[in-house]
Amino acid sequence: MTTAADRDPFVHPALFYRGAEQYLAGTVPFLRDGLAAGEAVAVAVPGPRLALVEAGLGADAAGVEFLDMTRAGRNPGRIIPGVLRAFADAHPGGRVRIIGEPIWAGRSAAEYPACVQHEALINAAFQGRAVTILCPYDADALTPAVLADARATHPVVIDSGVERPSDAYAPEQVVARYNEPLSVPPGAAALPFDAEALPWARAFAVREARRLGLAEARMQDLTLAVAELTTNSVVHGGGSGTLRIWAEGEQIVCEVHDPGRLTDPLAGRRPPARDQLGGRGLLLVHHITDLVRLHTAPDGTTVRFHLDR
């Protein structure tokens, strides 16, 4: 399979596949082409398909880095900095080729908006870089709406072995459309805070998380995430905010709302510049939690994170 690498330094096709045969036909030649060209090559897909690709490559698998996306990309906001950028930045100087499958049928309704925004933001995160990222989509298991979103987030779509430009490509519109208001359940514990109340906010979160059944092994992650977000609200988000926490299924959900405006859609998904004020805390929150959702509106910004209990 060929790509448009000669026309654009960054190439981001979606691969629609149906069954294992089409999956292998779309991925294995892509990887072997990269190896033959001397490119650094990685595969980050869900575990069962990881084994399928590795077996299909045979001896060539020795030259490929493999990551289970259900673990490395458990939090979709972690994929750009922790998987794609981490691999590309480790191989400067030449073209890098990656297969990344962030969306599969087992993704939850809460995770999906963050997944779609991730796919849209890849284009901005790698603009101008010599990187090819192929994103497989299971056309049998995923809904037509999901495939429509894939056409909107990828400039090129490969379907039944045919590569075509997507006439629905509109990544900025996708990011805006999935900037959804985040509803809070009735009875969620809430605490307003300012600079003086930061220690109380952390203590409040720990107390409520214990009451709601968060495992002690995850308590440090919760404490760090709350500390980063509440401090960011005080320093960069208008000086105050509101912390909320509740249980949702098998997860503890915590959010911080403040009157600040987060204008960079890639905040927390890429390493901040050395002279940049802020940005590192949100990157850490993405790294240590299981899901992060953001909503920006005229009245401020909400950052919500989920932790498995």
UniProtKB/TrEMBL annotation:
Give the source species. Streptomyces ossamyceticus
Keyword annotations for this protein, in alphabetical order, are: Kinase, Serine/threonine-protein kinase, Transferase
Taxonomy of origin reads: Bacteria, Bacillati, Actinomycetota, Actinomycetes, Kitasatosporales
| Domain Histidine kinase/HSP90-like ATPase, chain residue ranges per copy | 192-305
Q: Which residues form the MEDS domain?
A: 12-155
What PANTHER family does its record include? ANTI-SIGMA-F FACTOR RSBW, ANTI-SIGMA-F FACTOR RSBW-RELATED
Select a single GO molecular function from the record's annotations and give it.
kinase activity
Q: Which InterPro entries match?
A: Anti-sigma-factor_SerPK, HATPase_C_sf, HATPase_dom, MEDS_domain, RsbA-like_anti_sig
- The organism's place on the tree of life at top rank: Bacteria
Instruction: Please report the name of this protein according to its UniProt entry.
Output: Sensor histidine kinase
What the entry lists under NCBIfam families is as follows:
RsbA_anti_sig
